[in-house]
Amino acid sequence: MGLGPKRVLAGGGLSLTLLGCGRIIPPGIVAPPPPAIPATALTAGLAAGPSIDSLRLGSSDARGALASFTESCPRLIARKDASGLTIGADWKPACDAAARWPQDQAAQFFVTWFETVRVGDGKAFSTGYYEPEIAGVRTRRPGFETPVYGLPSDLVRAKSGEAPLNEKGQLPLGRYDAGGTFTPYYDRAEIEQGALSGRGLEIAWVADPVELFFLQVQGSGRLIAPDGSVIRIGYTGQNGHPYTGIGSLMRQRGLVGPGTPYATSMQGLMEYMRANPDQGRAIMRENKSYVFFKDSGTAGPFGSIGVTVRAGDSIAVDPAFVPLGAPVWLSLDRAEASGLWIAQDTGGAIKGANRFDTFWGAGDQARVTAGGMSTRGEALILLPKGTLKKLHSAQ
């Protein structure tokens, strides 16, 4: 899950991902392309970082990170680490200690149990994501005409030998037509034009299709009804089509940015789409990826490891370079994004070494912060003490 559709909360970007397929990269900002090589943290190269003492962890920052780390521990110990840096047992001593560590000494916990490691050159690039709040209801009514779909039962992976593997080396998602032939699943345009209508897949209805589009990018969110009641929805699947970030497309075409009335921010994209509904709809449909949701009840929002993500503490990473559940130290040119985070999510746009997506919660301020977050600096991964020595001796 995540928040992001590719995890999306999610993570997401969004995240998205679960936190699943992708998050928003602020228009005009081009993230470093994910390199074909290295493929994991091990092949990117590792070097010892500074002592954790020298990072001067803030007490509030450390307390939030300790709480999130503790909640992540059951998954951290049980999951296979795709980065190749650790195994579950490596984390157990620190996790056991975390369960009984006093919160008022949280900074000392990280000093006691961890060492810092720099992956590759350690040069970090980070964006932000959030949990959207948009107008929505459970039952269709005037003013709420755009459906939110649950996962279709005919969305399946191809059977072996019936389709080529995708770029991840997996059998692709799609559907089998009436003749039994595997074919790509309906894309965004086809779904918006009614390909899933009449099948009882609607779990809610929203007022604004533009808001729903960006909620799909984030991977989860809250639907607020006119009476104030809340429906929390979370990522449950994606149609198998690749995610396309529309911000860069709009900037390249001169629709937002210098010389236009529209800022190169998420808010600017939305403003353009509402002022130009036909063009906006066509641009959204260039992102053929479509995210399906489930009713999450009151819990969450959840990251891709199934743990609640928290504003200012949770971060989306590429699990090939950071163990999911591990602490991450960021020193960035945006002070509010600098500090200690816990890797609890993934996202379709979050690929490569030292690429991150910081979570900012819900509400108007979270939306503004996440929508404009684009920052660079340095990153360190915190691993159990002795990990780097063990890795070097194994080479």
Describe this protein's structure.
The chain is an alpha+beta fold and 395 residues long. The chain has three domains: 1-142 and 206-242 and 290-395, RlpA-like domain (Barwin-like endoglucanases, Beta Barrel), CATH 2.40.40.10; 152-200, no CATH class; 246-286, no CATH class. Helix content is 26%, strand content 24%. It has a six-stranded mixed beta barrel. It has a six-stranded mixed sheet with strand order 5-9-4-10-11-12. Helix 2 packs across helix 3 (88-98), helix 2 (59-78) packs across helix 4 (106-113) and helix 8 packs across helix 9 (277-286). The longest helix has 20 residues, at 59-78. The chain is globular, with a radius of gyration of 21 Å. Residues 1-31 have low confidence and may be disordered.
Shape, please? globular
Q: Which strand order does the major sheet show?
A: 3-16-13-15-14-17
CATH class of the largest domain: Mainly Beta
Output the number of helix runs. 11
Major sheet attributes: 6 strands, mixed, barrel
Beta fraction of the residues? 15-25%
In the predicted model, the low-confidence regions spanning at least 5 consecutive residues are: 1-31
Q: Which bin fits the share of residues in helices?
A: 25-40%
Relevant CATH superfamily of the largest domain: RlpA-like domain
Helix-strand string: HEHHHEEEEEEEHEHEEHHHEEEEEHEH
Q: In total, how many beta strands?
A: 17
Structure, briefly:
The protein has 395 residues and is an alpha+beta fold. The protein has 11 helices and 17 strands. The chain has 3 domains: 1-142 and 206-242 and 290-395, RlpA-like domain (Barwin-like endoglucanases); 152-200, no CATH class; 246-286, no CATH class.
